[in-house]
Amino acid sequence: MKKPLIAPSVLAADFANLQSEVEMLNQSVTDWIHIDIMDGMFVPNISFGLPVTAAINKHAKKPLDVHLMIEQPDRYLQAFKEAGAATLTVHYEACTHLHRTIDYIKSLGCQAGVALNPHTPVHLLTDIIADLDLVCIMSVNPGFGGQKFIQHTYDKVKQLKGLIITSKSNALIEIDGGVNLQNAPLLVEAGADVLVAGSFVFNATDPINTIADLKNLS
Ligand code: DX5
Ligand code: ZN
Question: Domains of the chain: which residue ranges?
Fold first, then answer.
């Protein structure tokens, strides 16, 4: 089976020991480090922001995959780029002028991603898919780690894969929420390229091995 990129979410890390958590990820086969930014408006939770992202970046040897669950994300794109973001993902539901936002992310020199909430259909990306580097399909309602995976995600991954092929887009398909070793092979089979995993990695007794297991699916 094709090896997915693995992006552990530090939302589930021990915030009082962030340096050692990031060093653990550096030693693992982690591809990207997923950074969940929540503003208490777009989602009903507040996580952390720019200074914590910059502090993680100081120790990280892997690219930061920044998932902005915030309203009017344009206000903070440059600041997150300066804090170390390699990829900037905004929510479809939070952007009135999505095409302009994607252009702006690219002008900053970042990879540009769009995330879709569970209720947002894939076909709404038809006119922008060719411009995207990444689409993040939310497999839980954003706002909290440790939630149950939504089964309808498989259908969305297949639809998105079809759209990417027909539009000759290079966008990667990322899955975020409730990812574990049961659903990971089915997601990759359906077309997923990047797997985000928070609680499944950080609550494991051996996170380094768990990351390797997610990477080496059979
Ligand atoms: C949800 C976040 C996810 C979440 C993943 O709002 O975007 O990245 O932290 O955590 P798990 O893997 O625990 O669902
Ligand atoms: Zn996320």
Answer: 5-215
Q: What residues have a C-beta under 5 A from ligand 2, the ion?
A: 36, 67, 176
Q: Spell out which residues line ligand 1, taking CB within 6 angstroms.
A: 9, 11-12, 34, 36, 67, 140, 142-147, 176-179, 196-200
Q: How far apart are CA 207 and CA 49, in angstroms?
A: 24
Measured in Å, residue 89 CA sits from the centre of ligand 2 at 9
Q: How far is the CA of 131 from the centre of ligand 1 (A)?
A: 25
Confirm whether 39 is a catalytic residue.
no
Query: pLDDT tens, 158-195?
Result: 999 999 999 999 999 999 999 999 999 999 999 999 99
pLDDT of 117 strictly over 90: yes
pLDDT of residue 218: 85
Tell me how far apart the terminal alpha carbons of the chain are, to the nearest angstrom: 6
Q: Which of helix, strand or coil describes residue 7?
A: strand
pLDDT tens, position by position, 175-185: 999 999 999 99
The tokens for 195 are 């797997």
CATH for 5-215 is 3.20.20.70
